[in-house]
Amino acid sequence: MFIEKIRYAVTLKAAFLAFFVTSLATIIRPMMIEQDILFTYIGIFNSLAMGCVFVYLKYTQPKSWYPMLFTCIGLLVLSPITFVSGGVNSQFAYLFPITPMFIALVSNAKYTWMTGLIVVILVFCLFIGVGFFPDFTYENVPQNKTASRAIWLCLSVLLSTALGVQFNRIYGAFGNKISEQAETDLLTGLKNRRSIMTFLQTVIDQSRNQKGQLSLMMIDLDHFKSINDSYGHLAGDVCLKQVAKLIQQNVRDSSDIAGRFGGEEFIVVIKNIDAQKALDIANNIRTSIEQTSVFINDEIQLTLTATIGICTISNEQLTSIEHLVDLADKALYAGKNEGRNRVVVAAI
Ligand SMILES: Nc1nc2c(ncn2[C@@H]2O[C@H](COP(=O)(O)OP(=O)(O)OP(=O)(O)O)[C@@H](O)[C@H]2O)c(=O)[nH]1
Are the CB atoms for 86 and 130 separated by under 8 Å? Predict the structure, then answer.
């Protein structure tokens, strides 16, 4: 998720840069060299096309294949000017080997290969085009070098594609690890608060117009401070890890999510569940915590209890994360006031 956001931001910046550079070149080039009016028209067309790509990207939901599609559109848009300025001999042809590298940076290995292939086909078309219509190219280029330039260009594109794919694999694995670490609570291995909040927001957005119910549990260990005070923080950490394991055992891996909300407070979110089933799960969690002893260094045996506030709400009533958390929190504190080690259902 995080990496996708970075990739999208880079794509957007690249699209704006393409728009900016083509516009600037359209204005500045005629000031520096004498050129045919055709170049200016093509430049204006290119700038407008790049501007449209940028605006489209900015105001639509990003998709994984967008970078490849728009880069290929960009290359197609640039191909008339590349053709009239010498085809494979044109300065614009220097952009070709960079293209798969860029796609590798913002997309995946499959799209990098596809882009490499498209660019090779484009080089081939330009080579054939210049051979068939030499009079269309405005610049004087040594025709005898065209074939070797086309071959070198193709080889550079393929090399850049292969390196890009390799880079993508390493970067992808690294990125996944970073994302995973950013979403995980270091001590317990459960999801961290930020990750739970992102998950909840996604669930709320997805279920807005759907029928069904969502359940949220706030689980807080009772008198945990006394464990820290009596046996030390390391013993407290062992207890937190054990409780995390017990909570995880009671939720489904696929659709439910369990996390550490902070300190000795845990959170569980369960999608598409009715109130009674959610209550059963909460009771299971509570009893498993109560019945499982925690051993510290195989010497000290501790028993823990937890109070759970639970809120099961229909998708229509679900307005915001804060509202949901607040309802479960109030139930939790009611449970603490009633004497702890119990499950309390939120009043909606
Ligand atoms: N060992 C350990 N302790 C933590 C961690 N995070 C928070 N705590 C401790 O959790 C304790 C929470 O104490 P309180 O908020 O008073 O809650 P409590 O003692 O459980 O009391 P009640 O919730 O009212 O039953 C504090 O002593 C914190 O230092 C952690 O990561 N590891």
Answer: yes
CB 283 within 8 A of CB 217: no
Q: Are 227 and 236 in contact (CB under 8 A)?
A: yes
CA of 241 to the centre of ligand 1 (A): 14
pLDDT tens-digit readout, 183-201? 999 999 999 999 999 888 8
Q: Is the CB of 336 under 6 A from ligand 1?
A: yes
Q: Tell me what ipTM this predicted complex has.
A: 0.97
Residues 22 and 142 in one domain: yes
Answer yes or no: do 163 and 201 share one domain.
no
Q: In sequence order, what E strands does the chain have? A: 213-221, 257-262, 265-271, 293-296, 300-303, 306-314, 343-345
Name the residue with the closest Cα to ligand 1, atom 15.
225
The residue among 277, 203, 291, 284 whose CA lies nearest residue 247 is 284
The model's pLDDT over 240-255, given as tens digits with 9 standing for 90+, comes to 999 999 999 999 877 7
Host domain of residue 314: 193-345
